[in-house]
Structures
1.
Amino acid sequence: MKKLTDKELTIMETLWEHGEQSIRDLINYLPGPAAHFNTIATYVRRLEMHGMISHKELSPKFYLYDAAVTREQYINAINKDNVNKLFGGSYMSFISNLVKEHDVSVDELKELIKMVEG
């Protein structure tokens, strides 16, 4: 699965949070200054080309777009890709790096173990 740019991820987050949207609806939900319609349409077309978004045609010039993959599917695919590329496929190395570099507490590790066991 393609790693998303920041703008693409913002569009996907909007669809994951609010569901089906037209381009104009997406523009209204996006943070910051209003983006140009054609700019967002280009991002949406690119996301659709990569299988991240699907559309429903309501009329010849009006489409509703929705996420074709869930947020969890995207996160899992990106994590798997990162583990393969950066840690030689070793999830133990990946988790060990997270624990060392992000000061994961003993209580958090215990909670993680409970989640895995339960």
2.
Amino acid sequence: MNQSTHLNDLSLRLLGRAFDELDVEERRVVEAISRRAPSSRDAADIGDAQASRGDRLADRVAAVGGSWGFIIVFTLVLLGWMLLNSEVLQRFGLAFDPYPFIFLNLMLSTLAAVQAPIIMMSQNRQAAKDRLTAGVDYEINLRAELEIMRLHEKLDQMRVSELAEKVDALCARIDMKD
């Protein structure tokens, strides 16, 4: 029996559908069962392998921009900017961005305009990782369910042959008495 026939028979027996009708995850599970190979995969490793350089950069920017360290340092920089331009440099007439800090507002707006889409890219990537994790979880759950069904079949077959042996032994005993 060739491999495709074996996969099709296994698919029909386990899932009630032909191998060609299965989705990608189900095909992977049936192939793994056929090869008697593990079907578990690490979604994080798969996601990292599929990530582009831009994806990894977006993740790093989002990790830095969404941390308490960034918020504290950024707050200190803003306070220093305002203090420097309102008190220290203004005494010497060198304040390059005096109150109401128009240049600072421009820089903050620019930072927000750039940082927001980068964080959204990172969130989209995280959503893709979550979908990948759900797919891997589905494969593992399907594999476990199918393996449990196969074990039940084997136990049922063992029970049937055990009962057949007992019936044969009982018939032999009855024949001996007659």
